[in-house]
Amino acid sequence: MAAPAAVACDPAAADRPGPRRLIGSPRSPPPPDRILVGGCVRDDGRRRPRRDRRNRGPDRRHPSAARVGEEPREREQGRVSLALEIVPADPAWHALFASEAARLQRALGPLALRIDHVGSTSVPGLAAKPVIDIQISVAQLDALEPLCRALAPLGYHHLSHPHDAHYPCFHRPAAWPHSHHIHFCTPGSMEERRHLALPSYLRAHPEVARAYAEEKLRLAPRFDAASTGSRNAYADAKGAFLEPVIQRALAEGYPRPT
């Protein structure tokens, strides 16, 4: 009968607390639900496939975009990546605007010279993010404090951005998803005209509205709704389609009475 194989003691183990391990003795297998992969314990036991980064073409996405399932490049702290949602048109959007406009008129009083429903939710049949965009014309924008005081009890928060001087924005609730956006402008300003001209033109040209909906559905999955920067990048990305439409609308005398 063959002699058993010699098993030596690990000399370094003498100085370590706990039971000694014999050199050459088999290790205890990991539990069935935790498998060693590449020296690391993985719960599922599967090795992630390696992505071959050789011969990859340039990334042609917008620099702030994030595809569904990817880590967004710019994320607000504590947020979870979430693709922007474009939903079919909802006839209730107009009633939601009317209800909110009445609340805003009471809160702002004589400060609000006019309150308009703008953006995609103001165009019947147009797919959009389910956010009611409201434009309020006021006499002057030199000080935002009176507007902040009036809107705070209604749950609105001021969003500081580079265009604050001529088109300040408020939203509610504080965290995404938002239900309402408010944009302030002065009467007769280019901002007032542009944001009234676009929906007026789209209502009169349903074929352009359909093309715009297709463009939004193409772009939206590339952006992260949980990131303010990515949402702004989405708005910028739409500009290639929208800016020629806005210029054409202004040249043709829009906005027109509905």
Low-confidence regions: 1-77
Overall strand count: 7
Main beta sheet: 5 strands, mixed
Topology as H/E string? EEHEEHEEEHHH
What share of residues is helical? 25-40%
Radius of gyration: 29 Å
What would you say this structure looks like, in words?
By secondary structure, the protein is an alpha+beta fold. The protein has a 5-stranded mixed beta sheet with strand order 3-4-7-6-5, sandwiched between helices. It is globular and about 40 Å long. Helix 3 (190-204) packs across helix 5 and helix 4 (206-219) runs antiparallel to helix 5 (228-251). The chain contains 5 helices and 7 strands; from the N terminus they run ββαββαβββααα. Strand 1 (35-37) and strand 2 form a beta hairpin. It has a domain at 92-251: Beta Polymerase, domain 2. Mean pLDDT is 78; it is low at 1-77. The longest helix is centred in the last third of the chain and has 24 residues, at 228-251. The chain has helices at residues 92-108, 145-151, 190-204, 206-219, 228-251; strands at 35-37, 40-42, 114-118, 132-137, 157-159, 169-172, 180-185. The N and C termini lie far apart (103 Å). 27% of the residues are buried.
